[in-house]
Design a protein that fits this description.
With 91 residues, the protein is α+β, with helices and mostly antiparallel strands. The chain is built from three helices and three strands, in the order βββααα. It is 55% helix and 12% strand. The N terminus is likely disordered.
């Protein structure tokens, strides 16, 4: 799977890990979108699937991802990022 940004791309291999020189930009953007789109007053693991679906569709649109191979992996990543964000808010 490739994520295209104009002439820049990120490869996602068998382990569904993003690699390449745009990996950092992608993960920073994704973390910011998790904070922006997921409600922080609800535990991240209990958030309705609709929020994760909207997050995934926005990610596919923004980064021009053509398939859903990484969808489950990125959902798990969103739960982790959302939980970390909530814990920073509470301290």
């Amino acid at each position: 799977m490739c994520v295209f940004i104009i002439n820049i791309y990120v490869n996602c291999y068998c382990l569904l890990l993003t690699i390449g020189f745009t990996r950092k930009k992608f993960m920073l953007w994704y973390g910011m979108m998790v904070q922006h789109m997921l409600p922080y007053h609800i535990e991240t693991g209990k958030v309705d699937d609709q929020y994760f679906e909207e997050l995934w569709l926005e990610t596919k649109r923004m980064w021009k991802i053509m398939d859903d191979h990484a969808k489950d992996f990125m959902r798990k990543k969103a739960v982790k990022l959302g939980t970390n964000f909530r814990s920073r808010l509470a301290t």
